[in-house]
Amino acid sequence: xxxxxxxxxxxxxxxxxxxxxxxxxxxxxxxxxxxxxxxxxxxxxxxxxxxxxxxxxxxxxxxxxxxxxxxxxxxxxxxxxxxxx
Length: 85
Fold this sequence. Notes:
The protein is about 20% helix and about 35% strand. The chain is α+β, with helices and mostly antiparallel strands.
């Protein structure tokens, strides 16, 4: 798996290898994609300093795949508290 990071303060869109799907990255956003999805366009963007590509270990993969916490948090007593917004 490869982590792709947008180093720019503007959104970027890339075609994935195979040309069927695309990847949209917001400003400073990170995404994890399969190795075989890295396209020539992404490699050129990396050379130009627009994005950073780095390998990801399996443990980091699991952490990134876990869903974000919902609006409720459990306290040590087991009661639910609401997050302020």
